[in-house]
Design brief:
The chain is an all-alpha fold. It has one domain. It has 19 helices and no strands. It is globular and about 60 Å long. The two termini are 39 Å apart. 37% of the residues are buried.
Length: 525
Amino acid sequence: MGRIQKAGKNIIFGYLSNLVILLVNFIQRTVFIYVLGRTLSGVNGVYTDVLSVLSLTELGIGTALNYSLYKPVAERNIEKIKSYMRFYKKAYLTIAGVIAVLGIAISPFLKYILKNPGNLTVRELTLYYYLFLFNTVISYFVTYKYSLVNAEQKNYIQTNITTLTKMATATVQIAVLLLFRNFLFYLLAQSVVELLQKIFVTAYLNRLYPYLRDPDVQKLTTQETQVVATKTKALICHKIGDVARLQTDKIIISSFVNVDTAAVVDNYVYIITYVGNFVNIIFDSVISGFGNVVATESKERQYLLFKVYRFFACWLFGFGAVGFFHLLTPFIGGVWLHDSSWTLPQITVALLVMDFYLKGGRTVLLNFKIASGLFEQDRFLPLIQGAVNLVVSIVLVQKIGVTGVYVGTLISGIMANLIRPGIIYRVCFAKKAGTYFRDSLKYIGVILAVGVVITPIRRVVMGKVTILTFALMVLLITLLYNLVFLAVFHRTEEFSYLWEAVAARVPALGKISAKRGTRKGGEDE
């Protein structure tokens, strides 16, 4: 099976998985909010981010080892795969222990992180936290096994296991909520399902890769260990910076505003994250394929595929940004919860949406960096971003509230959008990044124009928010945005490549493509 076929399979299963997870999570979150209320919803979101911060102890070892596995997997070098996987296992068991110790160490400070937690006692909050910690720690006992699956471009295996686990967890937790209306039982249910999943995954992957149980494993050479160590050191900076920038917003809001406001923000972030995952699936599914391209193709070919990859990202992330800006608040306050107290000011929504779009550009750059193994060149940038985010967010949250937190997030993110393209273009393509920024202005200009045009249409169509008017607005945004994007960019090299790739696999489009090629040839003549 070739790179495109494997990526296609990963994307299909990724979409199915994301759709299922989105639906079950939405039902689960809705039941949670109505049964347990806003404060516990905020606690749930903040604890999730606290454990994400603790998980920075992984410090990029997984990414570095995944990169190191590309070559032995491509060469079917079983002995070398065994060596890397044994090294990976030891590293992750150590990480699990470190997270457990750090997690216990910070538990006395929870009362400072959760401002105004209502009637919840410190004892209750600590108990809930330990259950979150347990679920995080046990995940590291099987995480390393997925690296081999993903290096073989079989991401769909992890995707399917995750989907089934999420369905089981959500079903059990919803039943517990409806029967007992108790947060402690809700968390215990998750722990039981997650533990059973880890046992199953271990048995399944041991059967899929029986050589991983072979006790006769050679140690990695000093040079190989040094390569992993060098890349891990660079990724430490990336990991710490990313956590400081991406996983601290709700913690800052909970600490300086209150837990209930963190719950309101969490709903917006939840929707952006899970709907955005439909886009991310495409780009995450081809990282391994890009690793293969970098290892086997010319720089000219790499550059073409990068431009196509980036064009498609701007198209889809732009579509998401326009849709989120116009639809998020009406959906949350009108269609879903029927309560305007669960909504954020539109300026805050605009900042969230802008960061979502710019994050799409960063995703393209980051994925290509990972596939190319370029971890050292910008290793200090994430640290600077994280520091800027924390300082700006903490200062502004005390002056202008929640909006100030996302000003910090946006400013720190833009830094990578400006700096990282120059590194990628210089190191990977031996080119200057001027074309990248000129194209960026074109894409942003079109996206902003569509967003502005839709504003008066939204006011007319959704004067009163109902399911029908909301659905009509979704349809109008979909048609208008994509028609405009097609009209502006349909003659570009990037669009032609995408069109031909899709047309080759869809017979009906293949006929249109042939006619399109004939017309183009006539024009050239």
